Amino acid sequence: MKGIVFTEFMDMVEQGWGMEMVDDLIDATNPASRGAYTSVGTYDLNELVGYVVELSRRLDAPVPALVKAFGVFLAGSFVKKFPVFFASARSTFDVLREVDRHIHVEVRKLYPDAELPVFSYRDVDADTLELIYESTRNLPDLAEGLIEGCAGHFNEILRIERTSVQMEPVPQVVFVITRVA
Ligand code: HEM
Questions:
Q1: Which class is domain 69-179?
Q2: Angle of helix 140-153 relative to helix 63-81, nearest 10 degrees?
Q3: Which single residue of 27, 57, 97, 147 has CA 20 to 30 Å from 133?
Q4: Which atom of ligand 1 is nearest to the CA of 86?
Q5: Would you say 12 and 70 are in contact if contact means Cβ atoms under 8 Å apart?
């Protein structure tokens, strides 16, 4: 996983629970990287999983909720750090339709070894988008948080349902997203 994801995660932890919590997570999980990340580096996803599990233990909060919260935070960071991807979009659906064919294509130019998910979509009607997420990393909670974070940016309220999950050959989750307001 690219270092930018790790540095953003540590920023979220620091902003939410302080620098001491960042140090505690690193001390408790003893990662090979020693917790020193650069945005262009590549690191073991298990280090991130370790932090989330440890944070979950310390806060007594469920792992999926923390991963989703990180997705919301990450969307806010992307809006600030990559405003160009949001400039011509007027809604979350506009962004989601562009993730696979544009945003992540540009991300790959920036980080050639990025391991990106595959998204496809179907417009059900003006207020409903079906988004299919496929990834061997299998991080649907992160995807859902990113979607909610985008909704926050556009001041939209979305209802997000996960309608099906397949594990083989590649984990796949279908989100049915309805714009409520
Ligand atoms: C400006 C917008 C975006 C940028 C710059 C961006 C960038 C990235 C980067 C750098 C990674 C890590 C790849 C790696 O570590 O190898 C990533 C992964 C990911 N992105 Fe995006 N992304 C953006 C928008 C979105 C949106 C809107 C979604 C919607 C759901 C999304 C879903 C994901 C997911 C779920 C992953 C985790 C990897 C996986 O599931 O396989 N991204 N993205």
A1: alpha beta
A2: 50
A3: 57
A4: 1
A5: yes
Q: Which pLDDT value is given to residue 72? A: 98
Ligand 1 atom having least distance to the Cα of 96: 27
Q: Where are the domains of the chain?
A: 3-61, 69-179
CB of 137 within 6 A of ligand 1: the answer is: yes
Query: At a CB cut-off of 8 Å and minimum separation 6, what does 46 contact?
Result: none
5 CB under 6 A from ligand 1?
A: yes
User: In a 10 Å sphere around its CB, with 0-12 CB exposed, 13-18 middle and 19+ buried, how is residue 27 labelled?
Assistant: exposed
Residue ranges in the chain whose pLDDT is less than 70: none
Dihedrals phi, psi of 180, to nearest 5 degrees: -95, -35
* Other Cβ atoms closer than 10 A to 127: 14
CB of 68 closer than 6 A to ligand 1?
no
Give the integer Cα–Cα distance in Å for 125 and 36: 46
pLDDT value at residue 163: 85
What per-residue confidence (pLDDT) applies to 164? 77
d(C-alpha 160, C-alpha 43), whole Å: 30
Q: What is the pLDDT of residue 53?
A: 98
Tokens of 77: 């960071």
pLDDT at 165: 83
Is residue 160 lining ligand 1, measured as CB closer than 6 Å?
no
Residue with CA at minimum distance from ligand 1 atom 9: 107
